[in-house]
Design brief:
Helices cover 65% and strands 7% of the residues. By secondary structure, the protein is α/β, with parallel strands linked by helices. The protein has a 6-stranded mixed beta sheet, with helices on both faces. Strands 2-1-4-5 form a 4-stranded antiparallel beta sheet, with helices on one face. Strand 9 and strand 10 form a beta hairpin. Helix 25 runs antiparallel to helix 26. It is elongated, with a radius of gyration of 36 Å.
């Protein structure tokens, strides 16, 4: 990439420094237009060549960056799998997501723009010296000195800038993690009345992020100001030095004219580097956050030389041995298990009971080798788990976890985690075994129905039954049930338990449970307390001991008559009707999409109106941004104009010292005003972004939890971080620059009309072309930009799903399959991005050509006026510089075309949330009065029907609960218990 960029930029800048010199010198000598025709054609051809080389340079950089991004994302995914749930259990998902998605996205700018620009900037002093030394060696030394100052001096602040970037990256990650946690827990926050305090906490974090980003911009802007000042002072100093040399007779006027026309354009690579420094710092910070993940060490590793191929299973069910196992979680001084020893014989069914926190789930994690014990060993079939490959170990185990995790996708997608190549008949048979087929069949799309993120569109019991069916499909010799029936109602429990009894036949089974019905028929039951086995035996034997097991199970045993009945009416307990009702609810909330917010509907006028509505709170900063923006461009133009006047006076033999004083003032002023403009623009922008983040959460708070049923929290988190971050372009780089881009060209055209209307007429077509270049292919660019925002939102959501469901991905050996899906989405992002970059680069190349040809047109028109005697040849350079300066503010707007397209996509997605209808509005409120003994609850003829359903979930319910009373609401899964609770909390 660097070699290609070097070649393209070298060719571009070689012609840049000689642009139009031959023509201007010819005019100075009084040559006619016919004599200058070939130089004019040659310069025009070079301008077109420049545009072509620019296109090739930029596209090589973007395509290389795209390949690098895919490679990095694959590497991060592989590393995430290697680190496993143990490492991610100590990290916040939102923090990691920003590294995987947003951090890698930052690297596109880093590899695609910053690094190539940095390379060319380092070569610039060499190029300047090689060219100018040919004309005048002392002058070359002055220009090289200025270039080195512009290049090196800002690096003195690099450590400060780098430190600020790292601190900002940490603050950004903290906000992203906090926002994701808050959105995923909104139902809980609202239930406990804590959503408002959480919003206040997020507001503080959003402002901390704004201040942190502002500090990065402040240190970065200081470097940019130094670069701007060094460039302007260098160009002015070289001109002054050249003028004195011409006056002294040691340099000819032609060389001075070339230096004048090169001006600050000679330092263009340094200017471009200045514009990329902020992106470079963010890219470095993103890279360090990525390396934090890549450099992390997994808690468990495979021994070298162990095969990782197909699973090898011994004949029959293997034995499980915990041999004197001592285990404590990393960073925890207290042991979860100490000298734990037991054996599960092949085909034996073992129940493990104990209070919460005694280490039951820890045993599952040790068995799956998410952790290794600090002492002792865990063995399967007589082999230490550390001597087995991960594939061999996990291929022998099917798990139903207490915290069942279903991925966003269809029911069938989640079932195939157990067996990817299962036939439809096998899927249905497994679901019948788990008593899940009937409710699945009643869903609108059956097995093709989308269940939502974490299975949110299903009830807890339904999720549990799908997880059990998934384990049935696994058909592994070892079955682990970790509170597998915890979310299943009593009636369905009876059916599923008999199905599990059949599944356990011939398999080594570990049952971790609180429910008596789950372990009562186990061959042996072990009671845990404080990480130790305190007693074991059959149910009857342990009950007779009246020990720990009796304490845990006595009440359940008396309620159930000690044994569940083997006879039941399956038609009664399947609850098909109720399941169908819950399925209707899921269908009502489901959308025929991937649940990603679409960037549609809002045009640029509407988007500008929405975004400008926020600016009212920062009006004064916007005003100062306008003032300093205009002043900065005027100062920049003044440097060129004063330089031209100096040359004119040198040519005429007139004194020019006074002009040099003004030039010495204008040169640093351009850098100072640019710094001030950047400060006010970014201070305004970052505070507005903080307000937008707070407003987004407030709106989600009012919409939740109903709205979250058909949205993905990873996508919403991407909106609060990446989408809103892109809107910074509009506030900091569009509003004021757009005003300047209109004002300055109009002033220049006015001056040219006064000086000589042919020059104005020659300039206007090219200026109009450049002015409208941001609107060329605008619809297509905006469409591609919006699609890119959607694709990144989907990638963010998929990554959240994958990290939070990493236990299932690893336990069910779906690493490769899930990784392929992850890379497919990542490649989809690139497939949208590359055509976008291609169109944008074509537009930018045409802009380069139009700008160059516009300058050429001014020279030709001015030359005609000089030949006709209507213009002093000494003033032609002045008007040429003035005309070329009019392109500067317009080109700055055009150069942010990509960011503007992303901004529109982000604004569309945010607007879609902001205009979403709130189904439950907050009431007027009542005085907070104490209620000794509690408050009474009354439901009067309450009926509720979920959106899209025909049958009500609650139908004319009348219920009076006196103050202080305790009432139990019971019923099968889907009977309306949760609906009633949500109505009481006004979720619906």
């Amino acid at each position: 990439m660097e070699v290609a960029d070097k070649s393209f930029d070298g060719a571009r800048d070689a012609q840049n420094v000689r642009v139009d010199a031959d023509i201007r010198l010819g005019v100075e000598r009084g040559a006619g237009l016919q004599e200058l025709m070939w130089p004019i054609v040659a310069v025009g051809a070079v301008m077109v060549l420049r545009g072509g080389l620019e296109y090739l340079r930029v596209m090589v950089a973007h395509e290389t960056a795209a390949r690098v991004q895919i490679t990095i994302r694959k590497t991060i995914y592989d590393k995430a799998v290697e680190l496993g749930p143990a490492w991610f259990g100590r990290e916040r998902t939102g923090d990691v997501i920003l590294s995987v998605v947003d951090g890698v996205e930052q690297l596109e700018t880093y590899f695609g723009e910053f690094l190539p620009t940095l390379l060319i900037a380092f070569l610039t002093p060499v190029g300047i010296f090689c060219f100018v030394a040919f004309l005048d060696l002392p002058l070359a030394i002055v220009l090289v000195g200025a270039a080195l100052v512009a290049l090196v001096l800002p690096t003195l602040f690099h450590s400060l800038d780098h430190k600020a970037s790292l601190e900002r990256a940490k603050t950004y990650a903290d906000f992203g993690a906090e926002f994701l946690d808050a959105v995923q827990g909104l139902a809980t926050l609202k239930a406990f009345g804590q959503s408002a305090p959480k919003a206040a906490s997020l507001a503080k974090r959003a402002m901390s992020l704004a201040y942190g980003t502002m500090w990065v911009n402040a240190t970065n802007a200081l470097g940019r100001g130094i670069t701007d000042a060094a460039i302007a002072i260098g160009a002015a100093g070289a001109l002054a030095f050249g003028a004195w040399r011409v006056e002294a007779g040691v340099m000819d006027i032609a060389t001075l004219l070339i230096v004048l026309m090169m001006g600050v354009e000679l330092f263009r690579p340094l200017r471009e580097l200045r514009a990329q420094l902020h992106a470079g710092m963010l890219g470095q910070a993103a890279a360090e956050s990525i390396f934090r993940v890549l450099d992390a060490l997994p808690l468990v590793t495979e021994k070298p030389g162990i095969g990782t191929g197909a699973t090898t299973q011994e004949q029959g069910a293997p034995a499980i041995i915990f041999d004197n196992v001592t285990f404590a979680y990393p960073g925890n001084e207290d042991s979860a298990h100490e000298s734990l020893s037991f054996t599960v014989k092949p085909g034996e069914r073992i129940g493990v009971v104990g209070p919460s926190g005694v280490g039951k789930s820890s045993m599952v994690r040790l068995l799956l080798r998410f952790y290794d014990p600090q002492a002792g060993a865990v063995r399967i079939g007589g082999r230490d788990l550390r001597d087995m490959s991960f594939d061999e170990l996990r291929g022998q185990i099917a798990v139903v976890n207490q915290d069942t995790y279903l991925f966003h996708g269809t029911v069938e997608d989640n079932l195939r985690f157990g067996k990817p190549d299962a036939t439809r008949e096998e899927l249905e048979a497994a679901c019948r075994t788990a008593n899940a087929h009937d409710f699945i069949a009643s869903l609108p799309a059956g097995y093709g129905t989308v269940v939502g993120e974490r299975g949110i569109r299903l009830s807890g019991g339904q999720r549990q039954r799908i997880a059990i069916a998934r384990a049935v499909l696994r058909d592994a010799p070892i079955l682990v049930l970790d509170e597998a029936l915890s979310a299943v109602d009593a009636e369905n429990e009876s059916v599923i338990q008999q199905a599990l009894d059949r599944l356990m036949q011939g398999r080594t089974t570990l049952i971790f449970a609180h429910r008596l019905s789950s372990v009562i028929d186990a061959d042996r039951i072990m009671a845990l307390d404080h990480g130790h086995i305190v007693e074991q035996g059959t149910h009857d034997a342990l009950m007779a001991k009246r020990g720990v097991y009796w304490t845990l199970m006595d009440e359940q045993a008396r309620e159930t008559g000690n044994r569940r009945s083997d006879s039941f009416d399956e038609k009664v307990v399947t609850s098909n009707t109720r399941d169908r009702d819950v399925a209707d609810m899921a269908a009502a909330e489901a959308e025929p999409t991937d649940a990603i917010l679409r960037a549609e509907g809002l045009g640029w006028i509407g988007a500008a109106r929405v975004l400008l509505a926020f600016v009212t709170i920062e009006r004064m900063k916007l005003f100062f941004t306008f003032v300093f923006g205009v002043g900065r461009v005027v100062a920049f133009i003044a440097v060129g104009v004063l330089s031209a006047l100096v040359v004119a006076r040198v040519k005429a033999g007139m004194p020019f010292d006074g002009l040099l004083i003004w030039l010495a003032c204008a040169a640093p002023l351009a850098g100072i005003l640019h710094w001030l403009e950047s400060w006010f623009a970014h201070d305004m922008a970052f505070k507005l972004l903080a307000a937008m983040r707070v407003r987004l959460f407030d709106k989600l708070d009012r919409l939740a939890p109903a709205y979250l049923l058909h949205r993905r929290t990873g996508d919403l988190s991407a909106m609060a971080t990446q989408d809103i971050e892109t809107i910074e372009t509009f506030y900091a780089h569009t509003i004021a620059p757009a005003f300047v881009a209109v004002l300055i060209p109009l002033l220049v055209i006015g001056v040219l009309l006064w000086a000589g209307w042919p020059m104005a007429v020659a300039l206007i077509p090219f200026l109009v072309l450049v002015a409208f270049s941001p609107f060329m292919l605008r619809n297509r660019l905006d469409r591609l930009g919006s699609r890119a925002r959607e694709a990144l939102g989907e990638l963010n959501a998929f990554t959240v799903d994958s990290i939070q469901g990493l236990t299932e991905i690893i336990a069910f050996q779906q690493i490769e399959r899930r990784g392929e899906a992850f890379l497919k989405i990542a490649r989809d992002v690139q497939r949208v991005r590359l055509p976008f970059y291609r169109d944008l680069t074509v537009q930018m190349a045409l802009l380069e050509i139009a700008t160059g040809l516009g300058g050429l047109a001014i020279i030709v028109a001015g030359a005609m006026m000089v030949v006709a005697g209507d213009l002093d040849s000494g003033l032609l350079p002045l008007y040429t510089i003035l005309a070329m300066a009019s392109f500067l503010p317009v080109s700055e707007i055009a150069h942010i075309g990509r960011q503007l397209a992303d901004t529109l996509g982000a604004a569309r997605r945010l607007h879609a949330v902001n205009v979403e209808k709130i189904l439950v509005e907050d009431g007027p409120g009542v005085p907070d009065r104490p209620h000794p003994g509690g408050a009474a609850i009354s439901l009067e003829d309450a009926t509720y029907t979920y959106r899209g359903r025909r049958d009500p979930a609650l139908d004319h319910i009348n219920l009076d609960i006196p103050a202080g009373a305790t009432v139990a609401l019971v019923g099968p899964s889907g009977a309306g218990k949760t609906t009633l609770a949500h109505l009481l909390m006004r979720f619906w």
